Structures
1.
Amino acid sequence: MAGRQIALIRGINVGKAKRVAMADLRAVCENLGYKEVRTLLNSGNIVFNSPRTTPAKSAVEIEQALSKRLGVSARVMVLGAKELAGAVEENPLGKVADNPSRLLVTFLMNPADRKLLLPLTKRQWKPEAFAVGSRAAYVWCPEGMLKSPLAEAVGRTLGDAGTTRNWATVLKLHALAGAAE
């Protein structure tokens, strides 16, 4: 049940909408009783200890607290440290992707949604590459996310049922969660 958890908040601090100071985000989590709360970057990444709640319950608590205390409506996904470590270990594009800022990992809010992405695996995306893992989709965009038809297709397919981080951020979260060796 408990332990180290990683919250990924979708869509905050992107452009001018949904601005949230990381100090406020930490305070929200600490007020919920989470311990050792740390944020990473300015884009809604939180690592914390929660001895009393499952990741699913933490997601609901954080989402409700963001709305109630900060007036920000945003989807929240929470992974256990082992789930994040599994996504790191499972990455099938590590040998293809040579720039960690252009390898994207889209975490699925519901792992069953991976079936929505399977048709995309049958298309040719060169020079891009695509793979679907058990809890995440891996998108290699050598020309960058903004120029990527693959990243657009994944986003259109999932809507708000996923949240994306680049590989560099995923590895930092993995290390911060204490799962890195």
2.
Amino acid sequence: MWGPLQALSRRRSVFHSEADFQFELATELRELGWTEIRLERPAPGQSGRIYVDIVARDPDGVRWAIELKYWTRKLELTLGDDVFELRDQSAHDLNRYAFCKDLARVQRLVAEGVAQRGRVIALTNDSAYWKPGRSEQCLDAAFRIHEGRELSGVLDWTRESGTTKGKGPLALSSPVALAWEDFCELDGKRGRFRLLDVRIPESAHPPG
């Protein structure tokens, strides 16, 4: 597991929301000597301005662009003084698409020199994301992100649907291998949180 995430897992195992996860990871980065930490930093996009969850420099001075996702199934528990009431989040197909869109976006930001390296991270207690689906003909087959999958080339829906309107094909500039890791394991089946952490390396062909 990536060092900052490993350090975070020892201090926080569950988060109330994606914003909570984002803030706590940024806090951990600062504790580890990262600088110029910015949340929701604007960056140029193909269709206007976009916002990157975290932009920061590591202790070696390398600028990173980091995108985060936090998907939950219903879970109620108390840890110390913290009461968690996580909701069931549906729309798995749209969430997978959003993760793949972040991959394409961070690859582009690195290629254009907005950042030197990047990460796209998903944290969830929903096994539907890390387990293969039952059908290869499902609407979001190209965007599946289960354990051991490799994403490459142009990703598109298998057919048109009302939910896919305005969500066009995504092009990855280089293949992405997917490997899930355990983040924490609490009581009960839904207390197992796993992590998908994709590192986007420095571009071999920087602009200019």
3.
Amino acid sequence: MGKAGAIRAGRAYVELFADQSAYIQGLTAAEGRLKAFGEKVASIGRAMMSLGAVAAAPIALSAKIFGGFEEQMLTVRAVTQAAEGDFAKLTEQAKLLGRTTSFTAKQVAQGMTSLGRAGFKPAEIEAAIPAVLNLARATGTELGQAADYAANAVRAFGLSADDATMVADVLTATANNSAQTVDDLATALSYVAPVAADAGETIQSTSKALGVLANMGIKGSMAGTTMRQILLSLADPAVRQQLKDIGVAATDATGNLRPLGDIMIEIGTAMAKLPNAERLSLAKSLFDQRAVSGALKLSGSVEMLKDMAKAVDNAGGAAKKTAEMMDSGLKGSFLRLASAAETAALAVGDAVAKKLMDWMSAVQGVASSVQAWVERNRELVATVTAILAGLIATGAAAWGLGKAVLAIKAGLAVYAGLLKTILLVKTAYAAMASTMLATELSRNVV
């Protein structure tokens, strides 16, 4: 009895702790349910947020696109001081060009802004902007710069906005038929155009000369200053007399300068008969060393002048044709697709803009009313604020329920693991104690 009783006592001690495994299993099951509940709460929250974001995204994007276009058009109106009717026409034209060209409506509005800042009136902008778009696309120039180039040329040569198409054609043909970009050509014109126009030169004749100079490596500001010096020299009475001595008339019967191209061809023919030393000396005397290189190139390039004249004289429609060619490729298709997509977004944005503006006005009105009411009820607001603080705390606790449950689950998992470890240790200790007790009882019995 003593030995058997001791063994049973030891087993009872072990079972006392071993039977608590059911408690651990319960904790594990509770852990799983809490995890599932917490994840469900979080999943519902994510789904609701995603649904709201997906539903609002297209409208928000369309409103943003429309807002950018509207702001640019308002800039056009501010610059031009356009009346309501004129502004409506420009707005519709910008949308139309944005829908039918490789430029977006907002880009068209930016081009309109550049023309407006150059002094163009609404009606002039309406007439000129299609040609500006063609010039930009045909020459690969940024739209705002193309607008500046066309506007400067129109103004410098005393032309009207209706001549913008012709100007775009001349600039395109000259740039595409000579060793210069439209940027180089525009820079050259900025130096020479005022003098050339006063000398009776047209944008066509001036561009021809600049094209030839570019093919000789003289372009940009150097070409502009060279040609300006040549024109000023031809107007000098002493130079005109020197030219007369070699059989070249610089002016016509009325005393006005003859076309530059004709004069330079005749100078080249006359100087070709001279020895090179006399030719260089005469050229320096006529045009000064600042323009002698360009003068020699122009006077000695009769065939090149004729070829350039042919290209410029047949420039009608050059900008539009070249722009259409540029749009015929894959990139052009992408650009037109992007423009069409923006047009659709503008339609959506336009549809919701009034509602959004009304809503924001209402919110502003409410905000003003609330401010006035708060000023009259400061003590009440303080009391309500204290109550709201409690509500906010409660709401924050509810919002964190899913995460809190997951945190409890994690804590239970740790606790269960710790309990398992303790039970294993206690079981081992109980077994050892039971063995020792049995051994001791055996000795006593013996």
